Amino acid sequence: MSREDAFTGLEAAIVLIAFVVVAAVFSYVVLGAGFFTTQKSQETVYAGVKSASSSFEIIGNVYGMCNTDGGAYLNYTKFTIGLTAGQNPMDVTKMAVSYSDESTRWTGADYTYKSNVAESDVQNKKYWGINSTINADSDTLLEPNEQFVIFVGVPTTAVPSERFTITLLPADGAAYPIVRKVPAGIDKVNILI
Fold first, then answer.
1. Do the Cβ atoms of 63 and 71 come closer than 8 Å?
2. pTM
3. pLDDT digit string, tens, across residues 2-14
4. Strands (E), the chain
């Protein structure tokens, strides 16, 4: 008489091993997909933080400049920018500048970058540019520990007590709005707050 008890045990062992192998492969696939998704989520968060944070900051005061004491309006603004901590160098010439107040708007397309800009280049004109540099080499790449003094022309609507916004939009990163108010009495050099 033949008995098949051992054969049934062998079948059960093969089925058990097959289930264990299939479960291992499935868990490996699921874990791999989870790690991949986590990595992509991390990259997305880092890219979002980079694009939401500004690449540079204003160092010191923003000045409103006028040709004469007691002038009727500002001629241009002057301020210094530098990179924020941990930011990569940026080409300032690729930045867009816009101006807006209650009655006037000069967009980034209106403004023209002018290299080695002087006071006469920007007075009530749609020009902006680097006037001078601090701790910098001769290029227009803003690098760590470098500072650029920027001149931005403003329209004749920058009159006493007028609030205006100059927006700096770098090629990479968030826009940096500079909101200031023209003082009630305009001098040749005015600290704008």
1. no
2. 0.76
3. 665 556 777 888 8
4. 56-65, 76-83, 90-91, 96-100, 105-106, 112-113, 127-134, 141-142, 147-153, 163-169, 176-181, 189-192
